[in-house]
Design brief:
Length: 118
């Protein structure tokens, strides 16, 4: 008689089914928590403009559905949240430099064009 390390065929089948069910459950609860969402939904959820989402799409983990410039853009909200946190930290570290650049541009004296009639 050959001794099987995992029991009878029925026990092995039941164990395989349990493992398969567990794998499916873990895949459903993995990195993608639900459906993918569009740029407008990411903007709404994270209180940023839609333009910001488009400008930082690659950094937010965009998934392009289709090819070319007209491809639909979709995002995993969990991934976008993680990456948005990193973008926000990076942006806040460079904020003073941006403010300085703006003030330099607007602070100089420039001759303005005359307004009609004046």
């Amino acid at each position: 008689m050959i001794r099987r390390p995992f029991g009878s065929d029925d026990q092995v089948d039941r164990l395989a089914d349990l493992i398969a069910d567990r794998v499916v459950e873990r895949l459903r609860c993995g990195s993608v928590q639900g459906d993918l969402v569009d740029a407008s939904e990411i903007a709404r959820r994270f209180s940023v403009s839609r333009d910001y989402v488009y400008e930082h799409a690659d950094e937010l983990g965009v998934i392009r559905l289709g090819n070319g410039s007209r491809a639909l853009l979709r995002f995993d909200p969990v991934t976008a949240r993680e990456r948005l946190t990193h973008l926000t930290v990076r942006d806040s570290e460079t904020e003073p430099q941006r403010a300085n650049r703006k003030s330099v541009r607007s602070g100089g004296s420039v001759d303005l064009l005359p307004i009609k009639g004046e």
